Amino acid sequence: MPVLTTDAESETGIPKSFSNEPPSETMEEIEHTCPQPRLTLTAPAPFADETSCHCQAPHERLTIAQARLGTPVDRPVRVYADGIFDLFHSGHARALMQAKTLFPNSYLLVGVCSDDLTHKFKGFTVMNEAERYEALRHCRYVDEVIRDAPWTLTPEFLEKHKIDFVAHDDIPYSSAGSDDVYKHIKEAGMFVPTQRTEGISTSDIITRIVRDYDVYARRNLQRGYTAKELNVSFINEKKYRFQNQVDKMKEKVKNVEERSKEFVNRVEEKSHDLIQKWEEKSREFIGNFLELFGPDGAWKQMFQERSSRMLQALSPKQSPVSSPTRSRSPSRSPSPTFSWLPSKTSPPSSPKAASASISSMSEGDEDEK
After folding, report:
1. Closest-CA residue to 218 (of 239, 191, 188, 197)
2. Is the pLDDT of residue 21 over 90?
3. 3-state class (DSSP) for residue 175
4. How many Cα atoms within 13 Å fall on the side-chain side of residue 334?
């Protein structure tokens, strides 16, 4: 592996060239003891002053091509990314993810500037430095957090933390009297660019809050914050509370309207169902009625059958028209013929006459036998 020479340094003191001379035998025997990337996420990332790199082995700088090919297991590529990280959001996380995945075996150090430096060069922050440090420690891509990071990177800082590359978006960052605070890093070949996430930034989030300030102030008043905590005047407090009451009434009216619409829709659905059921039942009733009482209905046939049965039951049996002739004895005279049907003559005048007629009818039967 190439080794840096003492004269291969830029004006800023950052090495920029390599020598092909191999390291001495005593240096080769020393193993690297640099911290390794985190393998588990059960604990937050440590701070640099808690786990600084005290490796005694020579820390030769790598080129981007060498780093992409991979390094020995005991020698990860140490990538540094810095920033303010106020209101830590997905854009910050994506930038750190890119820095972490630039090389196969990377150890990501993240520098966070203090409140004093940030307020001096950039402006007031929403979160204080302790909150911003903790936010970075709980990002899964971060292996180590450096508190009170410098605004401009110096050779001493790079050497102290044994930094191989610096990751940041490649848009020139003008600050602290410089057109680009990463200019000397780019010239030394230590800069690796990352991509910004469009549509999300700390300034955008603050702009949304300022634009909808009244909404958030009213919301926090509802949640129990006092006007003093929100820095709201007495008049504005009363105005916000009145607006909250108006919004509650509007919400109630809206809920009543929605429930009324739901009720009307349900009634319409039920009435439609009832009409359909009534039509089905009416068709069924008419069909059954016609089947029973129609011209060829079962009721007519049943009525005719029963009528014929009743007529047969009420009507007497008719005697046969011609009866077989019997051989009569010559000694006997033919018996008189009697009609079984009642005669049309007047009834007997007395009971005795009736009895006499009955007896004569019986005698006539005996003679026939």
Report:
1. 239
2. no
3. strand
4. 6
Which tokens hold the place of 77? 């590529």
CA distances from 184 to 118, 131, 230 (A): 21, 31, 44
Report d(CA 164, CA 63) in Å as an integer. Answer: 9
CA dihedral 23, 29, 30, 34 (to 10 degrees): 90
Calpha distance 151→69 (Å, rounded): 31
The total number of residues shown for the chain amounts to: 369
DSSP 3: B
- Give 361's pLDDT tier (boundaries 50, 70, 90): low
Structure tokens at 336: 């008189």
| Cα 141 to the center of its chain, rounded Å | 28
d(Cα 71, Cα 57) in Å, to the nearest integer?
15
In this predicted model, what pLDDT tens digit does every residue of 239-256 receive, in sequence order?
A: 888 888 888 888 889 888
In eight-state DSSP terms, residue 238 is H
**For position 357, what pLDDT does the model report?**
54
pTM comes to 0.60
For residue 168, report the phi and psi dihedrals to the nearest 5 degrees.
-165, 160
DSSP lists the bridge partners of residue 9 as: 15
Beta strands in the chain (DSSP E): 77-83, 106-112, 144-147, 165-169, 191-194
Q: Report the distance separating Cα 43 and Cα 366, nearest Å.
A: 134
Residues 6+ apart with CB under 8 A from 301: none
Instruction: List domains and CATH numbers for the chain.
Output: 64-199 (3.40.50.620), 203-307 (no CATH)
Return the closest-CA partner of residue 184 out of 58, 63, 9, 5: 9
Q: Which two tokens stand for residue 120?
A: 């001096």
First to last CA, the chain: 154
Residues sharing a CB contact under 8 Å with residue 291, sequence separation 6 or more, in sequence order: 297, 298
**Mean local confidence (pLDDT), 116-138:** 95
For residue 200, give both structure tokens: 């999300």
**Structure token pair of residue 354:** 């009736």
